């Protein structure tokens, strides 16, 4: 027979835990001393206690383990295996969530480091008015988003005739009232031909501060934030009401490529 102290030593648990398991009917001794009330356990009970402690360490409640014992699952390895495999899946899902959280935290650390010290030198460009033909998305009335617009546009870009720069495409952001805006994915053209489902738009002459974004387009918003909050004021440049441009040329190697580059044309006051 084994005492509470011996079980506590074997499984590295407290005697208080074992007494609690007894009190709630989860793991009871086979014998209790009549005079001293000492609890005694048989060696055959050790595998059951190991499984109980393991399931508790996995986060299963005493109520669930007690039910597993009541219906015979706790002592049947074949019945217990599916439960453990299901719990393993939930652990993997949680690990995935924690890894995403860790990546987000690290990304914020990197972002803070960038905003603390990086300075991007803009290039000032006065660009004449030009016409684009392409497909439009509106943040108020259209479904999806800008990435989905490009997914629809790219397979049809060869339908556009009269491209002035066939290797350069534009993303044109057109501000509207009350914070609404439209976005056109297109090419600079003569504007003489417009495929079905597309539209033509003339971008007016503007003065731009040109910055180069490097890396995944998922971080494009961070670059835009830095431009307006840090780099424009640092160079005594004031943003102007107008249309900003994304310019995609041979340096664009994919939306998720960390080496990809696009130019951002931000309207500024001359």
UniProtKB/TrEMBL annotation:
It holds the Pfam family MerR_1. PROSITE patterns: HTH_MERR_2. GO terms for molecular function: DNA binding. InterPro entries: AraC_E-bd, Cass2, DNA-bd_dom_put_sf, MerR-type_HTH_dom, Reg_factor_effector_dom_sf, YobU-like_regulator. Residues 1-71 form the HTH merR-type domain. SMART domains: AraC_E_bind, HTH_MERR. One of its GO terms (biological process) is regulation of DNA-templated transcription. This is HTH merR-type domain-containing protein. It comes from Paenibacillus elgii.
């Amino acid at each position: 027979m084994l005492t509470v102290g011996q079980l506590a030593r074997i499984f590295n648990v407290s005697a208080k835990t074992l007494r609690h398991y007894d009190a709630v009917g989860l793991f009871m001794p086979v014998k209790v001393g009549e005079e001293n009330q000492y609890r005694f356990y048989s060696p055959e009970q050790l595998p059951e206690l190991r499984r109980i402690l393991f399931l508790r360490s996995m986060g299963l409640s005493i109520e669930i383990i007690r039910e597993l014992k009541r219906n015979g699952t706790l002592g049947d390895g074949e019945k217990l295996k599916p439960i453990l495999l299901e719990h393993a899946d939930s652990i993997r899902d949680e690990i995935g969530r924690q890894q995403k959280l860790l990546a987000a935290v690290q990304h914020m650390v990197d972002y803070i480091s960038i905003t603390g010290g990086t300075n991007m030198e803009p290039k000032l460009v006065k660009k004449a008015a030009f016409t684009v033909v392409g497909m439009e998305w509106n943040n108020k009335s259209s479904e999806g988003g800008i990435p989905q617009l490009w997914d629809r546009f790219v397979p049809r870009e060869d339908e556009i005739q009269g491209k002035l720069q066939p290797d350069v495409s534009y993303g044109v952001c057109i501000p509207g009232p009350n914070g609404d805006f439209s976005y056109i994915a297109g090419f600079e053209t003569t504007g003489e031909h417009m495929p079905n489902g597309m539209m033509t738009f003339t971008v007016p002459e503007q003065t731009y501060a040109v910055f180069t974004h490097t890396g995944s387009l998922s971080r494009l918003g961070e670059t835009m934030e830095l431009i307006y909050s840090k780099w424009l004021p640092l160079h005594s440049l004031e943003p102007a009401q107008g249309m900003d441009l994304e310019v995609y040329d041979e340096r664009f190697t994919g939306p998720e490529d960390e080496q990809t580059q696009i130019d951002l044309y931000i309207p500024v006051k001359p």
